Amino acid sequence: MLTLIVPAYNEAENVEQVLDVVVKMPDFQQIVVIDDGSVDGTYDRINKYQVESIRFDYNRGKGAAIWAGVKCARHPYVMLLDADLIGLRETHLRSLIEPVVYGDAAMSLGLFGTGRFATDWAQRVAPNLSGQRVVRREVLESLPMIEHTRYGVEVALTRHVRHAGLKVVAVPLDELTHRMKEEKLGLVPGVMARMKMYWDIMRVLIRS
Ligand SMILES: O=c1ccn([C@@H]2O[C@H](COP(=O)(O)OP(=O)(O)O)[C@@H](O)[C@H]2O)c(=O)[nH]1
Ligand SMILES: O=C(O)[C@@H](COP(=O)(O)O)O[C@H]1O[C@H](CO)[C@@H](O)[C@H](O)[C@H]1O
């Protein structure tokens, strides 16, 4: 019924915290983890687990990683989850699954709350950026140019769903956060990566 897709780029320090939780859950009939050209040993960490793994030989961007997962998804519902979550619990994931798999929503959108001020605040200001979602697979399959969107993938997906008049349900994810770019990369490279991310998002907004 449900395929989990986890894109991961240089997440060797983080991905196990996420996979430790999801592999125990019977809710996922398929788990696909995409190593998007990492150079830090992420692929070896992924392969410690009983999951399907895909490895890109260079970094193609989050949209392309997700698309690779969608192409091999065998189930009608897909969960998208980032590889750098901190504090992930099964209850978070079940609350994302419920409105789509057992309800009438086309997509659920997970929003950090009571995790950390900076990441709670970022998602309050820009909820459409959230990487934690459950969505009908057919919606992802009909998203134009998904493999070229890089970090614009979430904005493109949210616009696509709303444009089609489909129902979206926001789900609070309490006590959950992620590692911010500045924490992973250091201040200056982190800020530069953030700017590149905003540019990917702008490109999608300009195009649509
Ligand atoms: O080129 C990229 C950039 C990011 N990611 C993955 O997409 C998710 C969200 O990216 P990131 O952590 O950079 O975003 P943030 O958590 O900082 O918002 C993470 O699992 C990344 O490993 C990816 O697969 N390819
Ligand atoms: O919340 C945000 O402002 C950005 C950046 O997060 P950080 O500043 O690195 O905590 O993160 C989100 O946006 C990306 C683009 O849509 C998504 O790919 C990430 O999954 C999401 O966490």
UniProtKB/TrEMBL annotation:
InterPro entries: Glyco_trans_2-like (IPR001173), Glycosyltransferase_2 (IPR050256), Nucleotide-diphossugar_trans (IPR029044)
Gene3D superfamilies: Spore Coat Polysaccharide Biosynthesis Protein SpsA, Chain A
Domain Glycosyltransferase 2-like, first and last residues per copy: 4-114
UniProt keyword terms in alphabetical order: Glycosyltransferase, Magnesium, Transferase
Cofactor: Mg(2+)
MF terms (GO), sorted A to Z: glycosyltransferase activity
Enzyme type, top EC level: transferase
Reaction(s) catalysed by this chain's protein: an NDP-alpha-D-glucose + (2R)-3-phosphoglycerate = (2R)-2-O-(alpha-D-glucopyranosyl)-3-phospho-glycerate + a ribonucleoside 5'-diphosphate + H(+); (2R)-3-phosphoglycerate + UDP-alpha-D-glucose = (2R)-2-O-(alpha-D-glucopyranosyl)-3-phospho-glycerate + UDP + H(+)
Superkingdom of this protein's organism: Bacteria
Pfam families membership: Glycos_transf_2
UniProt record similarity statement: Belongs to the glycosyltransferase 2 family.
Protein name: Glucosyl-3-phosphoglycerate synthase
UniProt source species: Tumebacillus algifaecis
